[in-house]
Specification:
Strand order of the largest sheet: 1-2-3-13-4-14-18-16-17
Number of strands: 20
Radius of gyration: 22 Å
């Protein structure tokens, strides 16, 4: 497969992965086709050597693993992680606002979005709806994706807002309310979106107990550049890493130990949720695997100390219009290979042995690698690696594809870089 094929596969994945819930559904379907079976966190497991399994964590995070038929070598545990959430507009449960003959939606900004990039773009709605189930402790969950542009955030014309090109500061409560419809004066706006959703999933609006919905950027991604050298798309942060994890676990050939991927929600808001990387969920899953295999807790703790985690998230790329924002010697460039992130303050997890391991894995996979660091007088955002290694003290290295316009409604990456990341994760598991 050429890197252009890989790039087009990524764009297809981005189009399907319109919310963290849909990422989990996509991952389940993808790995079920490869023979992975489903496990439930609230049941006892029967894990066997040679088996392939996945776990849906609260519909919003996802773990999958394989157990080698030969399970006695050292460095038994190899893990690749990603996050599956992205900056967006989260729709509040009571959201409808009638203003003149417009219906607007009350939303809140999720994560560190570049607000200006969300204006004048068609937006759709996706997420999950919860209705009554068999009993009060088992509500019914349904995923929804309208797959239709129903929202827009129109800009205010420069004739009226004279400061629009002078660094205008958007107010998240006032400026970020998208318009959903133009209606008759006498229409009742209450439950307007809910009725639209209910019609789509064939339920009565009054049966919907709660919802977790987002407004997502509807436009499809595409390959750009005079020689097809770049990808412009929404949600590259961090569907690129989701894609690499799924590719690696499905195609890895290692027949010893445990290969495991974990894709966490809520990274963009600090990972401090029951399904986030800051929870004990991955630790619990690893221990359940070991107990199911008949191994002792001491064996589990010993293998933790010998394991390795590659934490994958996008990396800041050199911007030709803002060269002064980059480090003097450690810049990341598009189409120049997997980025290995270094930070002495451990915002990116790393140590020399871990970096050396990743470099050799890249060499064996036939892909390039490059070192990145932020400027010494600036701080970048943190990611999963350091957060995970607090609860699972395993050698951890943060990597990713280089990205421009990070946290924009549309981001930009190199067309060759997805294949490099895919092959690195495959090599980790081979």
């Amino acid at each position: 497969m050429s890197y252009l094929d890989t790039a087009n596969n990524l764009l297809e994945t981005v189009e399907r992965c319109v919310s963290p819930f849909h990422v989990v559904k996509y991952a389940e379907e993808k790995l079920a086709e490869k023979g992975f079976g489903r496990l439930e966190m609230d049941k006892k497991w029967k894990v066997t050597p040679g088996g392939k399994y996945f776990i849906n964590v609260y519909d919003t995070s996802f773990v999958a693993f394989t157990v080698g038929e030969e399970f006695e070598d050292k460095k038994k545990i190899r893990i690749a992680t990603a996050h599956n959430d992205f900056p967006c507009l989260r729709i509040k449960p009571k959201c409808d606002i009638k203003d003149g003959n417009y219906i607007k939606l009350n939303v809140e900004v999720y994560g560190g979005a570049i607000l200006s990039t969300w204006f004048d773009r068609p937006l759709s709605v996706a997420g999950k709806i919860v209705t009554k189930g068999e009993n009060e402790f088992s509500p019914k969950v349904m995923l929804v994706d309208l797959k239709k542009p129903i929202l827009v955030l129109p800009n205010l014309a420069p004739h009226i807002n004279r400061d629009i090109n002078k660094g205008y500061e958007y107010n998240k409560q006032k400026d970020m309310l998208p318009i959903m419809d133009v209606v008759e004066d006498d229409i009742n706006e209450e439950g307007y979106l809910l009725k639209c959703i209910a019609d789509r999933i064939s339920v009565e609006p009054e049966d919907i107990l709660d919802m977790e919905l987002i407004a997502y950027q509807y436009d499809e991604g595409c390959i750009v550049g005079a020689n097809d050298t770049m990808i412009s798309s929404p949600r590259l942060d961090n569907i690129t890493s989701v894609e690499a994890c799924l590719y690696g676990i499905a195609n890895g050939t290692r027949n010893k130990g445990i290969n495991l991927i974990a894709m966490f929600d809520n990274e963009e808001i600090g990972s401090g949720s029951k399904q986030g990387a800051g929870s004990l969920i991955l630790n619990m899953i690893l221990e359940k695997i070991y107990l199911s295999l008949g191994r002792s807790r001491e064996e589990f703790l010993t293998d933790i100390a010998e394991g390795i985690i590659i934490s994958s998230d996008v990396a800041h790329c050199y911007h030709p219009n803002y060269s002064e924002k980059n480090d003097v010697t450690m810049k990341a460039m598009l189409n120049s290979g997997v980025v290995i992130k270094k930070d002495s303050m451990q915002k990116y997890a790393n140590d020399s042995e871990g970096v050396a391991i990743v470099k050799v894995l890249c060499e064996k996979a036939g892909v390039k690698s490059q070192l990145f660091s932020n400027r010494s007088d600036a701080t970048g955002g943190s990611t999963l690696g350091s957060i995970i290694s607090k609860s699972i003290p395993m050698r951890t290295v943060d990597v990713g594809v280089p990205l421009l316009a990070m946290h924009s409604a549309r981001e930009l990456m190199g067309v060759e870089d997805q294949e490099a990341l895919n092959l690195l994760v495959k090599q980790l598991f081979s």
